[in-house]
Batch of 3 targets.
Target 1
Amino acid sequence: SQKIEQNSEALNIQEGKTATLTCNYTNYSPAYLQWYRQDPGRGPVFLLLIRENEKEKRKERLKVTFDTTLKQSLFHITASQPADSATYLCAPSGNTPLVFGKGTRLSVIA
Amino acid sequence: GAGVSQSPSNKVTEKGKDVELRCDPISGHTALYWYRQSLGQGLEFLIYFQGNSAPDKSGLPSDRFSAERTGGSVSTLTIQRTQQEDSAVYLCASSLAPGQGRGNQPQHFGDGTRLSIL
């Protein structure tokens, strides 16, 4: 069955540093991979979508990579701020329902 | 414009009762999804509607769960004879029509209904 692993349940970093979150998947070959942010008590908010033929995608301080050989996506937040503290979810998908990882809870410490 | 709206935001009910959860998607979004999120768990897919196509019900955990979408807009998720393990946050999302694959459109989520079964 499809399996998604996000590198750790929690990640703490200092303000101003780059946060790197990892998403690994097994047993399928998604054509797309999406990243979402979720704050406590709120629904997920879409951040970025990357296609299998794209190696990298950027949006402001966010960067996502998609390595279909390693079956891995990396999500980077540069110049992190306390407001970036949230849970980040990855969702690799093809022609099937989105399957979400459990998320990584990021805390950016001032 | 308005986002996805879910009601009620919280629902507490006794075991064995039926509950209805409502979702108002973003206008113009033909795709609608229901998910369940239990404490400390990822989002679990329940059901997917796209236009006039037959819904994908493959994620519904039991026959106590059902959903409908009227007029291609509002959707209702119904849980009959609720059990304590049904306690979770139920999230609805909508999107523009996916192309070849379901994952090629961003999904817009509501803030969910927090369901507690006593």
Target 2
Amino acid sequence: QTQLQESGPGLVKPSETLSVDCHVSGDSIGSTSYYWGWVRQPPGQGLEWIGSFYYNGRTYFNPSLKSRVTISKDTSTNQFSLKLASVTAADTAIYYCARQPTYDFWGGAGFDSWGQGTLVTVSS
Amino acid sequence: QSGLTQPPSASGTPGQGVTISCSGTSSNLERNYVYWYQQLPGAAPQLLIQRNSQRPSGVPDRFSASKSGTSASLDIRGLRSDDEATYFCAAWDDSLNSRVFGGGTKLTVL
């Protein structure tokens, strides 16, 4: 059974870069069967897709965040990372990593496995 | 960023049925699949319905969904206390070139 586990700093200062990692067990991020991505949820609010990547390194981003987002992967540790630059209080959210089947990526919105999420607060 | 529209709340009594709606546009729901997620308090979302009406393995058949044009709905039969959660709809949006979510409907089982 695939498990995803986020880890993050908890607190980030405004204008700095937020960095969150996701460790995957039970599956390989090098698999062609899945895309891997990030979704965030401000406290008490709805969900927002941030971006995703495929095993070959291709990345795909929400256009509203694209200019500030970097997603990278480390196949040797089966881990991937999110970096969000120039953060403001509006970036305070629970950040989830999630898995999306390849057959459902293009034109779909089905994430079938999620981490438990990590809360990142942007505050000075 | 524009998304999908859901009522903020819904309620029902144990054993009853409830319907949660999701409204979109021609660039999302009309052209693409709708998905539904259940988020229990303090937990991560879980995929409840995929591709308009398909239940992933393990989801009870008390949960069903449909889509017509720019609207979709999630039906829950035989309400249980542990159905109390927030339900989100989601779809791909061709105009935004992004996945979009509804704001969520908090279901209370009275």
Target 3
Amino acid sequence: QVQLVQSGAEVKKPGASVKVSCKASGYTFTTYGMHWVRQAPGQRLEWMGWINAGNGNTRYSQKFQGRVTITRDTSASTAYMELSSLRSEDTAVYYCARAPRADNSYYYMDVWGKGTTVTVSS
Amino acid sequence: DIVMTQSPDSLAVSLGERATINCKSSQSVLYSSNNKNYLAWYQQKPGQPPKLLTYWASTRESGVPDRFSGSGSGTDFTLTISSLQAEDVAVYYCQQYYSTSSFGQGTKVEIK
């Protein structure tokens, strides 16, 4: 079955970076896109960016531009999201979520990972 | 950026009764070239990721019970649960994917 398995919880200090992985299985990785969405405690879902898993093209939310990098490793069917210059407000659950097509980011999210909790604290 | 606003923030409905959630976008999410509304609805239960219910405003995702239906066009959308079941207790989010995706603040549905 289609599955997205994310890496485990992280605790980081302010100013550090975090890299979250999302391993896909049950489908052809390169024919879909992958979104990254976060949810801070008590807050709404927030879109961070997207990658075309086929050609590696990316698109980022202006809010995170310059701090977020989304990459993929097609040989491992894995997408990655790295967020730098962490601050306490970045404490959140980070989700990867599949886009039903790879060609552009203007799609909904049909399969979600279980989420990775990132805590930023001194 | 497109701002999504849901109403109400929470509602309590009796089992078997209808639940209606509204979602309004700050600008139209209807793409004229393909006549599609770039609007999806999700259900999120505590400790779980969101689950896709409907997309293109009214297309139900495979496996989603037919008591869930989406409607609307342009800037005004509705998710209707025709006969509320106990397992429908959750927070529901609308999302636009017309222009750098954004979500509503969520609507919490409880049993009265």
